[in-house]
Amino acid sequence: MRRWSRRQFVGSLSAAAGLGLSGCHTRLLLHPQFVDNPFRLGVASGDPDSEGFVIWTRLAPQPLAGGGMTSMAVPVRWELASDEKMGRVIRSGEALAEPDWGHSVHVELSGLPAGREYFYRFYAGGEVSPVGRSKTLPVDPGQLRIAIASCQHFERGYFSAYRHIIEDQPDLLLFAGDYIYETPDKRKIRQYLAGEPLTLDDYRVRYAEYRLDPDLQEAHRLIPWVMNWDDHEVDNDYAGLHSQDFQPVSEFARRRQAAYQAFYEHLPLRLAARPRGNQMQLYRLLDFGSLGRMLVLDGRQYRHPQACRARSRKEGKLLGPDCIERLEPNRSYLGKEQESWLQSRLAEATSGWTMLAGPQVITPFRQRKDGQPAYWNDNWNGYPAARRRLLNDLQASQASDPIFLSGDIHSFWANQVPSDPDQLDSRPLAAEFVTTSLTAKGPPFDLFTGLLPDNPQVHYFESRKRGYTLCDINRQRFHTEFVGVDEQQPSNTSRESLASFEVLPGQPWPVKI
Ligand code: FE
Ligand code: CA
């Protein structure tokens, strides 16, 4: 299948050294020829700050058939310009697409002037990528527009929401988790090529399927993304090194390593996130000057297993008062290190908005089982001691104007987070906005609506709509719009504004406007 030309040339180690290669065993293909365009998965940028961002591509002429690349490293040239036609190139360089990383390329740019728009592209073997667009943030942005998306099941619908997000021209897109779904859906609009991924090759194909979606690819090309993950990037309802199906830990550790690596290979993540074994540093801070900051929280990698789980499957379930394990004080959701990292970051958050971007809803939510109050074991409701520690830290630090931005639950919510999580009507400590899924199925509307009288902390709930969330932030207000989009149509969908809210400094609750 691979028709490598006779003219191909295997580079010497000295040529490799010129690219800053660390290992001396990497074989370098200096003049690759590809069976097809190697940039079929597009380009992307991410994690912008006031002086740079990361740009990404992956060489994969045959993305659905293992990539279609040689087992040698390939040099990739990149260019950064101040105009869309790439006439005014202000930076350029060379990176190495390594076979061990799926021939992905992550280039971190820094030292750029703040608050500007930039354009970039990649070259390899005489082929050129599409032109991507990105932005440096102003040193002290007066305003910021953030789109939030999550839970995109490829089989369940189209990613039409991204067309509207692109039109909204956000400064960045926060992805709140569930970028891929590992399990096929019963109700299909389009179909995965294969079943549940287990190996690195499997996960690479799954990501490639997603990234061949034109709407998703275009959103990556035009908007800098800030990535978070939840469970489905690896396995539904996994917790640390525990799978939902009681896979042996060593076996699941290998699966998690494969899944984390494929996640890194396909997304515009900074080098700090490059996996080490089965670990990956995803929690981090984005600084928005005096406008505030965003703390991206990893809710999966370090958590204790769910409390009182079933013997056969660990997937989420409701826990009544008989589950004592749920209340165990040492149980952690973020893990010890991330908890202390967060505590320090909150103590430094002295002005502006403190956005906490975790994958899951933090506002306590009381459900019912056999007439008794009951709590979901897979989200923060299953980790009440850990939640109390976080909320205590938030109060003690007096972190400035905290707002939680969450996903996971496939429905829109506007909440106030009570200062005492056991007193749902206690003084609000923070506001929380939860975005719905792009395509994945929502929870039963009538059932949840019926629970709202027991949950005065919930201001708004809507699970019948798929879509995204748009936040317009300045120093005077935090404005949030919930946008519904018909995911069943591949094109010409309309954008429906479902509800809008405002949070004011010093008043940590959402006000419907
Ligand atoms: Fe989801
Ligand atoms: Ca999830």
Give the strand order of the largest sheet, numbering strands 1, 2, ... along the chain. Answer: 7-4-3-13-12-11-24-25-26-27
Helix run count: 8
| Strand content bin | 25-35%
Reported by name, the CATH topology of the largest domain is Purple Acid Phosphatase, chain A, domain 2
Q: What's the Cα radius of gyration?
A: 23 Å
What percentage of residues falls in helices of 4 or more residues? 10-25%
> What is the total number of structural domains?
2
| CATH superfamily caption of the largest domain | Alkaline phosphatase D (PhoD)
**Overall average residue pLDDT:** 93
- Structural class based on helices, strands and sheet pairing: alpha+beta
Question: Segments where pLDDT lies below 50 for 5+ residues?
Answer: 1-24
What ligand molecules are bound, each kind once? fe (iii) ion, calcium ion
Largest sheet: 10 strands, mixed
The span between the termini is: 59 Å
Q: Regarding CATH, which class of the largest domain?
A: Alpha Beta
